[in-house]
Amino acid sequence: MNQPGSTPAKDKEKTTKDYASYFQTTYQPPSLKDAKKRGKEQINIVKDFAVDEDLKKIGAGKKFYIRTYGCQMNEHDTEVMAGILSDMSYEATTDIMEADLILLNTCAIRENAENKVFGELGHLKPMKVENPDLLIGVCGCMSQEESVVNKLLKTYDQVDMIFGTHNIHRLPQIVKEAYFSKERVVEVWSKEGDIVENLPRVRKGNIKGWVNIMYGCDKFCTYCIVPYTRGKERSRRPEDIIEEVRHLARNGYQEVTLLGQNVNAYGKDFEDMEYGLGDLMDEIRKIDIPRVRFTTSHPRDFDDHLIEVLAKGGNLVEHIHLPVQHGNSDILKLMARKYTREHFLELAGKIKKAIPNASFTTDIIVGFPNETEEQFQDTLSLVKEVEFDAAYSFIYSPREGTPAAKMKDNVPLEVKKDRLQRLNAVLNEISLRKNQAYLDTVVEVLVEGESKKNPDVLSGHTASNKVVNFRGPKHLIGKIVKVHITDAKTWTLSGDLADEKAGVV
C-alpha cells in the first residue's frame, strides 16, 4: 500500500507533484472537539527573532507588494511582513505591476472576502505567465482553511507560497524555498504558534499605531471561523506591550489601538499572576500618548474593573466597540455567545452610567438559522434601546468548518435582505440623530490625512470615533486640532477650524 503523498506505481511516469496529497499529510481540518482541548498546550515566548545572514540580501533590487483584506489584526500582520521583507532588502511598492513578490493577506470571516481573493488571483495569472520569476503568496486566515488550501493547490497554479497566521515569522525561509526549489511551498500549522517578540515592523505613517496584546480566541461562537484560523487565546506579557506603546509615544504617535480577537480576555491565560485588560489599561493611561483605544471586545469578558479604569478618562477614549450580534436570547444561545439580551443591556447601562459621554458601535448579524420575524424585532428593539452610534451589519452566511454550517440555513435570502434593509434604516436614523447632537459644538480631531473625496479637505476622527472633515493646511496632518461642527450627515461631521480658545465637547 502506498504511503500518503507517494506516487502509485502505475503513475510513476508522471512528473507533476500531487500537492493535494502532500497537504493532506500535513494539515488536519478544523475540529471543534480537538480545539476545545487545546488549553493545555504549552505556548513559548520567543524573543530572539532575526533574519538569517544569508537571507538579508535575497531581496536586493526587488520590490514587494502586499494587499490586505479584513480586520486590523491583518493590517498589523501586514506591517510585520513588510518589516521582515525590508530586513531582507526588499523595497515596498504600491504599484502591483512592478512587484517581484506579491502577498495577499487574506480574511476568512465572510465568503465575499474569499471570493475577492480568488478573483484577484485570476487577475495575477497573466503577470505570472509573463514573468515566471514573480513570486505570488497567499497568507492570512484563508490559508488556515483546508478547503481553501486544497482549492488553491488544485486550481491556482500561479500561487508559489501558502502560509498561515502562525507562520509569519517563517517568511524568510518560505521565500528562500520558493525561490530556490522552484516548487510550491505550503507551510500551514494547525497548532497555534508561539508568541514571537521583536519582529520588525513597517508601520503606516506615524500617527496611529496598532499594538497586538493577544492572539486567538476561545469563545467558539458557532458562526465564526476565527478560533480555528487564529488559534487559542495567548496573551503577550504586559512589560512587552507597555514598552511597545512607550516606543510609539517616543516616536510621536498620537493614537494607539490595542488589538486582540477578544481583547478583554487579555491575561486570562496567565498562570503566574492575576492581570487583565483593566490592569493593562490602567498602566498605559499613564504613558504620554494622547489617545488609547482597544478592539474587539466580547460582552462576556467586559468586567467592572475595566469599566472603572475606562471611566478615569484621560487618554483612554470614550468609544466602545461592543459586538452584540443579535437582540434575542434564543438566537444568542444558538450562536454560543454565552450571554443574554438582558446581560448585554445591563452591561451597556453600566458603561453609560460610568462614562456618560460613551459612544457605542457594534456588529449585528441578521438571518441566522431559525431566526423568526419576532426574534428579528428583538434586534431592532435592542438597537433602539442602546442607541448605537454606528454598526457593522451583515447577512448571515455559513462558513465551512463552523458548527453553524451544519445548521439548516432556513431563512430565505430575500427575507435576509429585507431584514438587513430595515435594520440599516433604524441604525442610520440613530446615527444621524447622534451626529446632529454635535452641531454648533467644538470637538478635538486627530487629523489623519486628506479626505478620499477631496484632497483640499482634511479628515480625521474624534475620541468618540466620529469622522470629521474640514478645510485646513496640510501641516495639521498628524496633529490634534479643534473643529467647530457646522454640518452633520449619517456617517460624517463637517466643520471649520475653531479658535484655539474655544471650548471642547
From TrEMBL:
Purpose: Catalyzes the methylthiolation of N6-(dimethylallyl)adenosine (i(6)A), leading to the formation of 2-methylthio-N6-(dimethylallyl)adenosine (ms(2)i(6)A) at position 37 in tRNAs that read codons beginning with uridine.
Region named Disordered: 1-23
Annotated [4Fe-4S] cluster 2 binding sites: C217, C221, C224
Keyword terms of this UniProt record: 4Fe-4S, Cytoplasm, Iron, Iron-sulfur, Metal-binding, S-adenosyl-L-methionine, Transferase, tRNA processing
Protein name: tRNA-2-methylthio-N(6)-dimethylallyladenosine synthase
Domain MTTase N-terminal: 62-180
Domain TRAM: 436-499
Originating species: Fictibacillus solisalsi
Cofactor: [4Fe-4S] cluster
UniProt cross-references to InterPro entries, sorted A to Z: Elp3/MiaA/NifB-like_rSAM (IPR006638), Methylthiotransferase (IPR005839), Methylthiotransferase_CS (IPR020612), Methylthiotransferase_N (IPR013848), Methylthiotransferase_N_sf (IPR038135), MiaB_methiolase (IPR006463), rSAM (IPR007197), rSAM_horseshoe (IPR023404)
Location in or out of the cell: Cytoplasm
Record-listed [4Fe-4S] cluster 1 binding positions: C71, C107, C141
Cofactor binding summary note: Binds 2 [4Fe-4S] clusters. One cluster is coordinated with 3 cysteines and an exchangeable S-adenosyl-L-methionine.
